[in-house]
Amino acid sequence: MKKVVLSTLNAKYIHTNLAIRCLKAYAEPEHDIELAEYTIKDPTLNIATDLFSKKPDIIGFSCYIWNIEETIKVIKILRKIMPGITIVLGGPEVTYDVPYWLERLEDVDFIVIGEGEESFKQLLDQLDGDKDWSKVHGVAYIEDGKPVIKPQQNKIDLRDVPSPFRFQEDLSQLGKRVTYIETSRGCPFRCQFCLSSIEVGVRYFDREKVKEDIRFLMKHGAKTIKFVDRTFNISRSYAMEMFQFLIDEHVPGTVFQFEITADIMRPEVIEFLNEHAPRGLFRFEIGIQSTNDETNDLVMRKQNYKKLTRTVTMVKDGGKIDQHLDLIAGLPEEDYQSFRKTFNDVFELRPEELQLGFLKMLRGTGLRIRANDHQYTYMDHSPYEILGNNVLSFDDIVRIKQVEDVLEKYWNDHRMDRTIEYLVTECFETPFDFFQAFGSYWENRGWSRIGHQLEDLFRRLFEFLSTETSFPISVIEGLMKLDYLENQRYKPRKPWWTHELTKEERSSIYQSLLASPHIPGEAFSDLNLNEKELYKHTLLETIRSTDGQEQYVLAYFEPASGESTVFEFARHLVQ
Question: Are 403 and 336 in contact (CB under 8 A)?
Fold first, then answer.
């Protein structure tokens, strides 16, 4: 029996690859398969060396846009140090435009096309047996100098596939990494920028087997379980059954993440979740991409934005489920101003996370096939990101990337929510205008090329805002101080601002608070701090509130729990 290693290069260490686990589960016990995962940040030679040490006869790589170029580098080394090894590639990146890959990848023996379980097992059977490739379907290879591409036959019955979650070597890592699970394959929609539009129809795994897998994962410590179904809620009855199951049987500390289509989710489903789901149990990813109707029509994307807004708003008002909303810059006929409107439309919903991505012209998608219709230019190699089109210049793309940079740091990380909310509603015409102005300033100052600590983020924002004389900078500084203090777990030794109170002033105020602890509020009185604790575990500063009044802010840092509590009180109360 030949030894087989299935490998991939994940984007991050916390990620796991579901595909290679599905292949292993389907092919065993007839074949001896070992899994080997790395990241795209690992040195190429280190990866090749580790694979070499496993002494495999066959190596398979799971390929995606984020890892294909790094994977090719590993393959080139393996071919030199293990000339007799059989190298097999599979995955979405090599499934489409197969002739191109066969020509480019001379060091690769076989490419598995599309859904790989049955094809890969057939290939292993023949590599271990008669080497009769006519019995293998869904593969491509070079024979007598010519490409041979053999399409798949029937899709496998997902109800019968074995579980990919029972491998002993995975169990110790479940609590440290994201676990991916699928309950269906395929997508009912035809969005022309997405590979899922190519596969017709939706097929489901056995529900009870899926539930058993989830029970098993929770029992063994899985903390984050992400469903990779393209539209988890396409069947309302199925989604409701799974939601009920997860609510009834979840283990505290486990989070489930889904990709949902918001405009088809019924209000009664959201009402059910708002009433019954524990806070933080579920997380929704919602692809909005664009609010431009013409753009959505051109990419065959059906979207009722009114219903989508209703869903997102109901979920947010329920306070149980965090939402991650996605945008794509660079879709057809969406110019800079149109994207500005899309951004503002979606930011108005105040999602917990707003992901701003850029269109990638994926091989096999309709948009790439018809790229000339919109004069697209894009990168020749993965990730095939666009460089411009007939309405969006590269200069526009650069500017939007500046927005993306500060959006990630200042909104998605939630370091200063009250400050950003004030800025986008009171100081700038629109939220996009704030992120664009700050992002351009950030880039011009060269901050994108240097690292930063938390305090640097506050200092840099304050520096930017100080350049605009019309802003109420003292009010903004007060909000920033509050945000900073509320997000600290321990008393900061060196805050981002310069202390305004002298040691004597601070001591006088502390003495007043010891004499009248009710001044900051009853919650402060309940702390019952003595003088030593007050000086050691609190930080006192002045701020100007949004109504223009000067106040004191006192932050108490609980030493045992690592939590902070912030109290605000009027200055005249201690004078």
Answer: no
Q: Which two tokens stand for residue 183?
A: 């309950």
Strands 184-185, 203-204: pairing is: antiparallel
Name the CATH superfamily for 3-150: Cobalamin-binding domain (3.40.50.280)
Q: Smallest Cα–Cα separation from 300: which of 194, 185, 186, 184?
A: 194
C-alpha 5, offset from chain centre: 28
Structure tokens at 315: 């979920």
Three-state SS for 232? coil
Q: Is 2 helix (H, G, I), strand (E, B) or coil?
A: coil
pLDDT in tens, 420-453: 999 999 999 999 999 999 999 999 999 988 888 9
Distance between CA 337 and CA 405 in Å, rounded? 19
Distance CA 67, CA 8 (A): 8
Residue type, 111: I
In contact, 363 and 380? CB cutoff 8 Å: no
Burial 414-453 (b: 16+ CB within 10 A, else e): ebbbebbebbbeebbebbbbbbbbbbbbbbeeebeeeeee
Instruction: Please tell me whether residue 452 adopts helix, strand or coil conformation.
Output: coil
- Residue 177 DSSP SS3: coil
Kindly report the pTM of this predicted structure.
0.93
Give me the residue spans of the domains in the chain. 3-150, 158-383, 393-471, 489-574
In angstroms, rounded to a whole number, what is the distance separating the alpha carbons of residues 124 and 280?
Answer: 43
Architecture in CATH of 158-383: Alpha-Beta Horseshoe (3.80)
> What does the pLDDT look like over 339-377, one tens digit per residue?
999 999 999 999 999 999 999 999 999 999 999 999 999
What residues form DSSP beta bridges with 179? 225
